[in-house]
Amino acid sequence: MPKKRRVNKRKPKKRILILCEGGETEPNYFNGLKRDKAQRNRLAALRIEVYDSDKSTGKELVIEAKHLKTIARQEKNPYDDVWVVIDRDGYTKHPHAFDQARANKIKIAFSSISFEFWILLHYAYTTRHFSTADDLIRHLKSRYMTDYDKTDDNYSKLKDLTPDAIQHAERAREYFQNDLDRGTRIYELNPYTDVDVLVDKLLKLD
């Protein structure tokens, strides 16, 4: 009598794509989260792929994410979630990026005026307006993180403050809720971030 085939009951790993602009800050942060020893056993059940794109605009990153998503589906190895991490920092065509993302079920983790606003929220709650990314970084380095460097693994430096940053980001969005209710788009706000939504999701996924 032939032996019964053993059925593999293990759930397939969730596959998550995080496509970043910037070249340093964003991919370094999310790769730091992937490598964190405290999260390693849990994150082993996930396939988090952090890509550093050479694209320079939000619309181009969304198009690239759409392309990678299509390839994964054709290879019968689809992504469960696709995220694009972008900021405002001088770019003015965000409506196109957000519309393309929504049409293709791609999620955007957005910061205004730069990703460093998410870094700043680890130290303090603020709704201070920043004219440029350089202005924000100067404030961050002069008041809170004198050794800040885009090339560092800033997740590891800040991980103990992550719960505070998540609370501060949620509170900042609540502060601007009336503007959003009146039709203001998030890329018209300064400051703004919802990077915490992605970070919180990664830290809670299993």
Main attributes?
single chain; 206 residues; alpha/beta; five-stranded mixed β-sheet; 10 helices; 5 strands; globular
List the helices and strands and how they pair.
Layout: E1 14-20, H1 25-35, H2 37-43, E2 46-52, H3 58-74, E3 81-87, H4 94-103, E4 107-112, H5 116-120, H6 133-143, H7 154-158, H8 162-175, H9 177-181, E5 192-193, H10 195-204
Parallel strand pairs: 1-2, 1-3, 3-4
Antiparallel strand pairs: 4-5
Main beta-sheet annotation: 5 strands, mixed
Overall mean confidence score, pLDDT: 90
Structural class: alpha/beta
In whole angstroms, how far apart are the ends? Answer: 39 Å
Shape: globular
- What oligomeric arrangement do these chains adopt? single chain
Q: Which percent bin holds the helix content?
A: 40-55%
Proportion of beta-strand residues: 5-15%
Tell me the series of helices and strands, N- to C-terminal: EHHEHEHEHHHHHEH
Strand tally: 5
- CA gyration radius, whole angstroms: 18 Å
Distinct helical segment count: 10
Outline the low-pLDDT stretches.
none
Question: What is the spatial order of strands in the main beta sheet?
Answer: 2-1-3-4-5
